[in-house]
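Need tokens for this chain, all 698 residues.
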Amino acid sequence: MPFPIPNKKMNRQREVSTRETFRFKRFARKSYSIFNSIRKTVTIGALAGSALLSAHAASVEPPERAGIQSKPDTIPDKELDEVVVTASKAQLPLNMTARQVTVITSKEIERSPVRSAEELLNYVPGVDILQRGPHGVQADISLRGGSFDQAAILLNGINLTNPQTGHYSFDIPINLSDIERIEIIQGASSLIFGASAFSGGVNIITRNDRQSNFFVKTEGGMHGLFGAETRGAVKTERSLHRMSAGYKHSDGYIRNSDYNIVNLLWQSRFNIESSTVDIQAGINEKRYGANTFYSAAYPDQYDDTRGVFASIRGETVGKMKFIPQLYWSRHYDIYHLFRPGTPDVPSWYGGPNYHRSDLFGLNLNMQYASLVGITSIGGEFRNEGIVSSNLGRPMRRPSGNYTKWDNRSNISLFAEHNFVFNKVTLSAGGLYNYNSALADTLNAGGFYPAVNISWRLNDASTLFASWNRSTRMPTFTDLYYNAGKHRGFSGLTPEYSQSVETGWRFRKMGVTAGLNLFYSIGDNLIDWTYDASDGLYHARNLASLGTYGAGWELALELKRWLGEKHLLQSIQMGYQYMMQESGEATANNPISAYVYNYLKHKFSTGIQHRLANNLTLSWNLRWQERKGGYLSFNPETGEEIPAPFKPHCLVDAKVNYDFRQIDFYLNFNNLFNTNYVDLGNIPQPGFWLSGGIGIRIQ
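Here are the structure tokens for all 698 residues:
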């Protein structure tokens, strides 16, 4: 939740004579128990407020197992020792989930040499970040070999995935200092996050401010780098309000790679008796040189984007919870093939492309805690629309630069039950999804079930297995984009997939480890593939594609054994292997823009050192090998030659010095100046030195 505020004082609790408090005594002595993990009570009584709205993933207190106590629970929220994650419609502790969930904590964020959430995700095995520009300018997020359009991007549980194109799904007003944690679920996740979560979802959760505070940071570095962030929180008796702002600028590391990024975010939580109302709103602006972003033949591209959003969410408490939420998002994009001011612009150039995409959503999650677990039922209405100069169907009455449009509505209904037993958690449910764009076809609606189970072998180990199905509609770019060497196809059909997964988790005495095996099969997958007969990339539905793989992770908090003053404090490692099976790819060996260009191998590690009092050093290394290839462009001859992606290894480092409430740091990115590309023909930055100072006031 964006702003959890501790329960009121004990004397206020005692004043409420009409309430009874249920506590979970059966599992109280077990580290895997619901009660010990969540440390909350299920309070039954008069519930004030109705139709409460805001933005974050749903949560529910676990089902009571046995025993009633008249004394209220007095354990404060700050004593939570278990991360509660959104791996089902009801939030559960991480050790009880039946899905592979990766959690990046605020501590990991602080010690990582990164300047954006996208770069942070680079260190996660199974997550593929294909960057066009650095520091969050633009990056495509791929999960387990899926395309960037198949990953759902959420902010506090609000699905802000852009219907125009996944290139803009991360245009959200978030600074690194705003983030409490990031949850990554890989594999089909339509039941959890909605129909767009075809290959998984990334849920960014903002900080849990509990009191008034203030923070400011400024930084600078090579290539004209400058950045500043500030945030503050004000707490009252019944509310908490937070505002944050950020600015990032660089002159660019190559020609036409400069950028300016502005973020503004406002969040408020109101306590209304036993219920809460969360409100958030923000704006993100990006202006950047897009050197060869979408076509290697044009180095003077430029993009000007702006995204705004607002949401409101409410949550009641008790055995029966009501969690309604309402959200709205709008994204503007002005794309220039030739940057304003570029000399000698060809006469055939007709000017920039103008796009405006809109999201509107309303959903309700009702959760009931009983002796047999947590039942969740509800639904969502989500409308997606676009007006554009080149995407969509012709408008009857053009408006300014907009001459085309399209609109579709998605209606989904879901039901899920989490059976919570002594050692076993079983989650079973399904999502029924209907899309208005398919109203005249047999594929207008479909059912997407999910079954997940976890078995706690002991206090430290858990086995889990899952089976999930999902679907995704094509983006408006897939359907309509016809410019340059790209041809969309309005006849594209939805994608379908199902995935199975099994794995093991271990957590005890400073050791965290995990293993996972997975297999997914997708039908009608959408990709842009090169046709040598006309020299164009066409949007197509591919034949069946199977993806299988395995991965492991290990984290050691060495300071628990070696001492707080030892040079070596902690180490984290992870690896994922992945392979595709496709008869179409084997027969035709297509040049793919996205789907077939997956990471076969990815290894990452992070090491933290204590150099002296308050002085630390963090290392991050990642090595990866990508399958597939691209058309390498020769600017002198204008020729395009097929070329494979080359494996590469990157090393980053960060030095931190904390003095009371002041933090000094230096970032060393791409320490060995490695030459590499994530997407064809777009060289990524070499060595980049930056540094800054942050001040905290509480």
